[in-house]
Amino acid sequence: MSELKLEVVNQSGPQYTQHHIKALDQDIARYCFIPGDHIRGRKIAERLDKVRQVSATRGMFVFTGFYSGVEMTVCSTGMGGPQVAIAMEELGRMGADTFIRVGSAGGFQDNIGVGDIAIATATYRDGGTSYKYLPGPFPAAADFFVTHALYDVAREKDAQIHIGVVTAGDAFYAPKDPVQHKLLADAGVICGEMESDTEFIVGHYRHFRCGALFVMDGGPKSKEIRSKGNVSLTIANHAADPDFLRGEDLIVEIALEAMKRIADQDRMGK
User: Fold this and answer.
1) How many CA atoms, within 13 angstroms, populate the side-chain half-sphere of residue 248?
2) Nearest in space to 96 (alpha carbons), one of 58, 130, 55
3) pLDDT in tens, 176-227
């Protein structure tokens, strides 16, 4: 594990090939993590050896280093489908072809608590960006082999996991539709977040391998937070809730080890 040093990255070099992510093509690894949270991105990067910051533009912070000898890139994308689509497109043009979203989500099911882990097999498309790529009937499905690697590692670590369909949308503070929520919950949807619908659809369209796992920040143990605008949220404190932080550490461990196994399989030609 390396000590992570943040540096101001020169953004004016003519050698940069992408409009938003100002990095050298050779500084982007084939294997890439795309957390939304910049703090979580740093947590992943801090577990890499010989890690270096290779870009810091347009609200995307990009690090590249090595995990167990495998070169990996971390790009924190910020929130929502438009940003993750831009990140994937440009990282893909610089050589990335395998993406794992390492995110947080709010649980839909009564048996899901703060700190639990969900692995997405597919995502209900409730955001807008993915529809600019492929029409509604096209499923936002995770890559089988990436998902299988995540599941295997999670089981080996005795993680409390839920695996299945999740939902992702664009508007965090939009008025909630209780009928729609109940419909999805009754259909077994595990949780809701903001990026995996776009991740999976861009993955299909561009022939990337994509997977996603999440730590739950909503559930029976979560606390209600009410803002000045009388907006009520049932959500764990990402900076202080011990169950959430334990789960976050675990999904980072799972994602890193799963990515290593994918890389190992690639080297063996499987």
Assistant:
1) 23
2) 55
3) 899 999 999 999 999 999 999 999 999 999 999 999 999 999 865 555 555 5
58 phi/psi in degrees, rounded to 5: 55, 35
pLDDT tens string 141-190: 999 999 999 999 999 999 989 999 999 999 998 998 999 999 999 999 99
Is residue 114 within 8 Å of residue 243, measured between CB atoms?
Answer: yes
Q: Which region holds residue 158: left if phi is over 0, alpha if psi is between -120 and 50, else beta?
A: left
Tell me the percentage of the chain whose pLDDT exceeds 90.
Answer: 81
Distance of alpha carbon 193 from alpha carbon 154, whole angstroms: 20
- What would the pLDDT profile of 71-93 be if each residue is shown by its tens digit? 999 999 999 999 999 999 999 99
Place of tokens 């789960």: 247
Q: Is the pTM of this model over 0.85?
A: yes
- Give the whole-angstrom CA distance, residue 139 versus residue 123: 8
The CATH code for residues 25-267 is 3.40.50.1580
CA distance 21 to 231: 35
In degrees and rounded to multiples of 5, residue 205 shows phi and psi of -65, -35
Q: Any idea which residue has 């084939």 for tokens? A: 30
Please report, for the chain, the start and end positions of each structural domain, with discontinuous segments joined by +.
25-267
User: How does DSSP assign 35-63, residue by residue?
Assistant: -S-HHHHHHHHTTSEEEEEEEEETTEEEE
